[in-house]
UniProtKB/TrEMBL annotation:
It comes from the Bacteria. This is Alpha-1,6-mannosyltransferase. One of its GO terms (cellular component) is plasma membrane. It is found in: Membrane. Belongs to the MptA/B family. Keywords: Glycosyltransferase, Membrane, Transferase, Transmembrane, Transmembrane helix. The keyword Membrane applies. The chain crosses the membrane at residues 30-51, 80-100, 112-131, 170-190, 202-222, 234-252, 259-276, 282-306, 318-338, 358-377, 389-410, 416-441, 453-471, 483-500. Pfam families: MptA_B_family (PF26314).
């Protein structure tokens, strides 16, 4: 047959060849860091049954024939599985991060990456709560309403039962610090599961799962809107947050309210930077109703909105007044509706102060208080609590001032506003009275828009690894055990260095033919995406 008469499909791959290529690609992904991370997640979930925070005064493990995993050799095996899973997930995350940053190795498409996030998350949905008993506190506080109490005025101690038994007793007399949106969610869970802690945990994860789904949708698009000099900004954003073992294990394995918050926060920010300002403010107001910290994002919306106006024409004084009024009125109306629906007013504001009961040196005020009492020990006996009261008060004043300064500095354009939001969330984490690992999702969500450099990525990896190692799955901490703490610091520093370095580790890391930084074409600063651009994102 001549070239002129060749069949039109002669040069195309056959269906069998396409199927074979698909199977080969799938196998390569299964044995890649993506597949390893999913296996690590499964190991974490299996190990959690022996080392996690099982409900107290509940016989469900015994009834299932699994009581042996909670003591003796069974617990040792469970511990080995859990920490092996953590190690595998962290190593997989590091290798994946190097591939994305350096352009080494092949990555699947965005749809496949999203499904791999599902693969990493799914085993954790079936884990026993780890690193914290907060989920039992959520349920206990929500259960108060069905028993005639006000969760913003009464503590769970007023309603004895399996939920009170299972929560951390330090919170038994405290009131709920969570906003009306989350309390509505938690009350809905308890209305279905009653006082059953096992069913309550499962249902709580289920109703917060849309937060993960929203994050899977919004995070890569938010990162792609601010590509910077990253090779693949969408993949880099997913790696920073959605493949981060610290985020996944703490928020999903915990589980914590941040499991829901991270998606709502990311979706609200994405809408705002795309030019859907009012819907974005509505979503961010809902996020604030989930946890008040999300409210830090609302003032930065003003600068983004004004920058979008500036990209079209000169900003007039009435534009400034209108944008300020719009953000304030819309967010107030949404929050007011949520508050009215919840029915217990603003009493949750008083519950915010109970965080003072958490004492660890992860925040600057608490660290300074520890240093002062330690330095004074040779000459005087100083109680930590009075010193903490002073340093934390100073920290709150400094934090308030820092937030104002950062907000004003970030007024230039939408990119600076997102950087300012990241710095503001970081200031809250460092200067508030107390901080815990899962809080760091507050800063990491806007950070995907900042295109952090390799050194900052190293800091994130080191910090995330440390937050997995220095805390134990049974709710204990190693922050005050010098020997174990030293090991945690060294391992975490090594993890951060491996991600940050440009050193090539063996022939397995094959660089692309062009290893120069990639510059992405983008619209002028502050310009909302056109309809066609939004469709491609």
């Amino acid at each position: 047959m001549t070239a002129a008469t060749r069949h039109p499909d002669a040069g195309a791959p056959s269906r069998a060849q396409s199927s074979s290529a698909h199977r080969t690609a799938l196998r390569s992904q299964l044995i890649s860091p993506l597949g390893a991370g999913a296996v690590g997640s499964l190991l974490v979930a299996l190990g959690s049954y022996g080392v996690g925070d099982i409900p107290r005064n509940n016989t469900w493990l015994q009834d299932a024939g699994l009581a042996w995993v909670t003591y003796g050799h069974g617990r040792s095996v469970a511990s080995l599985l859990f920490w092996a899973g953590v190690a595998v997930m962290v190593c997989a995350w590091i290798v994946l991060g190097r591939r994305i940053r350096l352009g080494t190795g092949a990555l699947p498409g965005m749809t496949a990456l999203r499904w791999w996030v599902v693969a990493w998350v799914t085993p954790l949905l079936f884990a026993v709560p780890v690193y914290s008993r907060d989920v039992y506190a959520y349920l206990a506080q929500a259960s108060l309403v069905s028993h005639g109490f006000n969760p913003y005025a009464d503590g769970p101690v007023n309603n004895p039962g399996p939920l009170l038994d299972s929560m951390a007793q330090v919170w038994a007399t405290t009131t709920a610090p969570y906003g009306p949106a989350f309390m509505l969610v938690a009350r809905g869970v308890v209305a279905v599961t009653g006082d059953n802690p096992v069913a309550g945990v499962a249902m709580m994860r289920l109703v917060m799962l849309p937060g993960v789904a929203l994050a899977v949708w919004a995070v890569p698009l938010l990162a792609k809107h601010f590509p910077g000099r990253r090779r693949d900004p969408a993949a880099a954003g997913m790696w920073l947050v959605l493949f981060n073992p610290m985020i996944l294990i703490h928020t999903v394995g915990g589980p914590h309210v941040e499991m829901l918050l991270m998606g709502v926060l990311a979706a609200g920010l994405l809408l705002v930077v795309r030019g859907a300002h009012v819907p974005g403010v509505v979503v961010l107001a809902v996020a604030t109703g989930i946890k008040i910290t999300a409210g830090v994002a609302l003032p930065f919306v003003v600068w983004i909105w004004l920058d979008h106006i500036r990209s079209r024409r000169a900003v007039r004084p009435r534009d400034v007044a209108g944008v300020f009024a719009g953000v304030i009125v819309v967010s107030s109306v949404v929050f007011g509706i949520l508050t009215a629906a919840e029915g217990h007013g603003l009493g949750w504001l008083t519950g915010l102060g109970w965080a003072d009961r958490i004492i660890n040196w992860l925040t600057v005020p608490t660290l300074i208080a520890h240093v002062i009492t330690w330095a004074a020990a040779p000459v005087a006996t100083m109680s930590l609590l009075p010193v903490l009261a002073v340093t934390r008060l100073i920290g709150e004043i400094v934090m308030a001032m820092a937030l104002v300064v950062i907000w004003w500095w970030a007024r230039r354009d939408e990119r600076t506003a997102m950087l300012g939001l990241t710095l503001a969330m970081s200031a809250v984490l460092l200067l508030e009275p107390s901080s815990l690992p899962w809080y760091y999702v507050w800063a990491l969500i806007p950070a995907v828009a900042c295109a952090p450099g390799r050194r900052m990525l190293g800091v994130v990896v080191a910090g995330s690894t440390f937050m997995l190692l220095a805390f134990a799955p049974d709710d204990s901490i190693l922050l005050y055990e010098p020997g174990k703490l030293t090991i945690c610091v060294l391992v975490s520093a090594l993890a951060g260095w491996v991600v940050a370095t440009d050193h090539r580790f063996g022939s397995a890391e094959q660089y692309s033919t062009d290893n120069r930084p990639v510059t992405h074409p983008q619209t002028p600063a502050g310009t909302p995406a056109t309809a066609s651009e939004r469709g491609s994102r």
